[in-house]
# Entry
Amino acid sequence: MSPAIASLPVTYQDIADAADRIRSLIVETPLLEVAELSAAIEGRFFVKCENLQRTGSFKLRGGMNALCSLSAGDRAKGVVAYSSGNHAQGVAAAARHFGVPATIIMPEDAPAIKKANTKALGADVITYDRYTESREALGQAFQAETGAMLIPPYDYLPTMIGQGTSAIEVTNQLRAKGLTLDTAIICCGGGGLAGGSALVFNTTFPQAQVWAAEPDSHDDTGRSLNQGVRVANDPEARSICDAIVTPTPGEVTFPVLQACGVTGRTASDADVLETIAFAANRMKLVVEPGGAIALAVARKHLTELKGQTVVAYLSGGNIDPEMLARAMSTSNA
# Structure
């Protein structure tokens, strides 16, 4: 183990323990081979289908682990979270499981399906303007006023630990096939999924490389890793990948990404639309823009993956019908 890994406040064992803790509360999502892409790289290409998780994304893992990690007394105070929609649903579902109230702070322009599903899970929803208001400040103010427990989407160890349980599954699924991972390509906003998963793969497949996949316009993680410090996105930047348009890498997650040697790759919104259609037409899977970014990056960089065993994460499937129609109508896939 490298000194950088040893100095982190989270370990592989923490994530393995979380996998045991939440196993009965989540779905073990499938690892599916994409024959067309396996042929293209002359290797083995798989997708980890977190779009088929309960609530439609990997975020249920972090939500469940976060609430499991609270004492019964703290859970009884209720929970508050801020999210563009997937963490919202994960926390709302976990709160409903434990029978505690949840309030979710969501941007006004969050996909309608994400807001509707969050409300359907029993949470109260408060909206805000993501470009002029701070969701962190709103969450902290709500916590101070009500005493509810704040569950951040990535800058919170129990959340990141929960997200990393997906990599425990990937490890077991690949080993069952007699395979060793060469490259994992993981959707990245704040870095909870990428960080937690990279830490697992650092132990289970230490020779593997991990790519953090981001939109061209929101490549803060890749630039931060290159520069060695956390840098921010242009606040005027826009992307259809609503689930992963965070302003900067997480304070908690970034050191994990650094220690694990993660590197960044990007794809354009046009690439993402094409990939959503590819997933629907060729793979019969529904994927949202932020959830498709890792597959979009993989399809853009196939020449770098020749002869490898590759896993690209499909991190979410909560897409509005209008966005799906847009992808299908503008794509040649």
